[in-house]
Amino acid sequence: MLAPGLVAEPLRVVSQTVGTDELLMAVAAPEQIAALSHIARDPSFSAVAAAALAYPSIDRGDAETILKYRPDIVLVADYSRGELVAQLERAGVEIMSFARYASLEDAFANLRRLATRLGPSAETRAEGVIADVQARARRLRERLAGATPVKVIAPSTYGVIGGAGTTFQDLCDFAAAENLAATLGGLEGHAPIPREQMLTWPVEKVVVAGEDAASALAPFLRLPPYQFMAAVREARVALIDSYMLSSVTHHRIEGYERLARELHPERFLED
Predict the structure, then answer these.
(1) Higher model confidence: residue 96 or residue 270?
(2) Domain boundaries, the chain
(3) DSSP secondary-structure letter at 92?
(4) 3-state SS, residue 191
(5) What is the pLDDT of residues 80-139, one digit of tens each?
(6) Which of 61, 81, 236, 262 is the 20 to 30 A CA-CA neighbour of 55?
């Protein structure tokens, strides 16, 4: 118990992944943020890249670097290196690990869990974020009501494609899109590309990420089987920001809205 007149020092929190960076910045007071992952500043992966510049960045992901920020809590994900987590625990640091991020409801649960640990003000901020995202999702559903889903794929240069149970499927579910990798390909997760089968899919648009459609599409103009697909050759593209394809937090709402506008522009003419 604190002596009369003394004020408790704020918890010092270090985030080790871009997903936990976004959670932390949404609910924490600035003085609670000791450091963020280096990826927080990369707009290709982070929805908070500009705001993250105001905070220290972990330039190396080892325990020594993290500990120099004197954290009370380190935020990690289930894919963080087990050795790193073990080293931090041995140093007496509290670890909060996040493992569920497949859906918007998972994102809300993560916000609330972190906010509960950080205190009443954080809980208030979390509920405000959640209410805002819920309202935006509701307005988007109303705007897309009755829209015919656009048949899409999200091509990849890594030899896999996103099927059911991926962040891309989540985008499709909210943006009135049919992910052909899931519906026709029957694929789960990020699965190997069914090269011959894909050429029979009636792809209406390819969802690609980048600053402009031409540069985003360029790698696929030389890569089989995409180079043989009419939607690729004819540049039928839905362009979104890179971080939107992999968002595991409440910022996925931005991807829902952007993809919906790309696929159903007629529903947004009044804006």
Answers:
(1) 96
(2) 13-138, 150-265
(3) T
(4) strand
(5) 899 999 999 999 999 999 999 889 999 999 999 999 999 999 999 999 999 999 999 999
(6) 81
What whole-number distance in Å separates Cα of residue 5 and Cα of residue 229?
A: 70
Angle (deg, nearest 10), helices 104-118 and 120-144: 160
* DSSP character string of 108-162: HHHHHHHHHHH-HHHHHHHHHHHHHHHHHHHHHHHHHTTPPPEEEE---TTSEEE
Q: Tokens 């109303």 sit at which residue?
A: 142
Instruction: Give yes or no on whether 13-138 and 150-265 have one common fold.
Output: yes
N-to-C CA span, the chain: 55
| Mean predicted confidence (pLDDT) in 206-210 | 96
Q: What CATH number belongs to 13-138?
A: 3.40.50.1980
Name the residue among 267, 258, 253, 47 with its Cα closest to residue 170.
253
- Alpha-carbon span 37 to 40, nearest angstrom: 6
CA nearest to 174, candidates 107, 271, 124:
107
Rounded Cα distance, 77 and 191, in Å: 22
CATH class of segment(s) 150-265: alpha beta
pLDDT of residue 192: 97
Place of tokens 């409801």: 105
Residue 6 has pLDDT above 90, yes or no: no
**φ and ψ at residue 24, rounded to 5 degrees:** -60, -45
Using CA atoms, how far apart are residues 155 and 195, in angstroms rounded to an integer?
A: 12
